[in-house]
């Protein structure tokens, strides 16, 4: 038995706010299909207009850097195919910033990370920027 969990975050190129509306809905559908094909379980996921947070569960044989490469590459290819209009908002035709963040998650920190990811939308305003205090 195994339990390898990772918190993964990556951003759009130039932090462009393109993950909105039907693009967001299609991204979530696509990323779930891609993850399932890789044998990755998505525990929690939240999209912001310019970045994505995921808490995933993987088998030990899966190299996380390879998995992230496939998640980013395949999702970009699918989104460009179904939403060619987003290319006009990006220079050079790339959807994702080449970098990403990955951290292992333990049994002790899983609940904290899951709560953090699920709370992204409520903590942030439009475009992923902090909401103004009133």
Total strands: 4
**Secondary-structure element sequence?**
EHEEHEHH
End-to-end CA span: 50 Å
Number of domains: 1
Low-confidence stretches: 126-134
Name the structural class.
Answer: alpha+beta
Work out the helix count: 4
Overall pLDDT: 90
Adjacency order of strands in the biggest sheet: 2-3-1-4
- The CATH superfamily is Transposase IS200-like
How much of the sequence lies in strands comes to 15-25%
**If you compute it from the alpha carbons, what radius of gyration comes out, rounded to the nearest whole angstrom?**
15 Å
What would a concise description of this structure say?
It comes from Intestinibaculum porci. This protein is α+β, with helices and mostly antiparallel strands. 37% of the residues lie in helices and 22% in strands.
Structure description:
- By secondary structure, the chain is of the alpha+beta class.
- The protein has one domain: Alpha-Beta Plaits.
- 37% of the residues lie in helices and 22% in strands.
- A 4-stranded antiparallel sheet has the order 2-3-1-4, with helices on both faces.
- Helix 1 (21-38) runs antiparallel to helix 2.
- Pfam families: Y1_Tnp.
- It comes from Intestinibaculum porci.
- GO terms for molecular function: DNA binding; transposase activity.
- This is IS200/IS605 family transposase.
Write the SSE topology.
Blueprint: E1 4-11, H1 21-38, E2 41-48, E3 51-58, H2 64-82, E4 101-105, H3 110-118, H4 120-123
Antiparallel strand pairs: 1-3, 1-4, 2-3
Helix pairs in contact: 1-2
Keywords:
disordered C terminus; alpha+beta; Alpha-Beta Plaits; four-stranded antiparallel β-sheet
């Amino acid at each position: 038995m195994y339990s390898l969990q990772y918190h993964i975050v990556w951003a759009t190129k130039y932090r462009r706010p393109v993950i909105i509306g039907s693009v967001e809905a299609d991204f979530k559908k696509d990323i779930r299909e891609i993850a399932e094909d890789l044998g990755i379980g998505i525990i929690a996921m939240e999209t912001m207009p310019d970045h994505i947070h995921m808490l995933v569960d993987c088998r030990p044989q899966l190299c996380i850097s390879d998995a992230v490469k496939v998640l980013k590459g395949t999702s970009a290819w699918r989104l460009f195919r179904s939403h060619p209009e987003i290319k006009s908002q990006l220079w050079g035709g790339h959807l994702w910033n080449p970098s990403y963040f990955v951290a292992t998650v333990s049994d002790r920190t899983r609940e904290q990370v899951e709560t953090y990811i699920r709370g992204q939308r409520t903590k942030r305003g439009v475009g992923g920027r902090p909401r103004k205090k009133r």
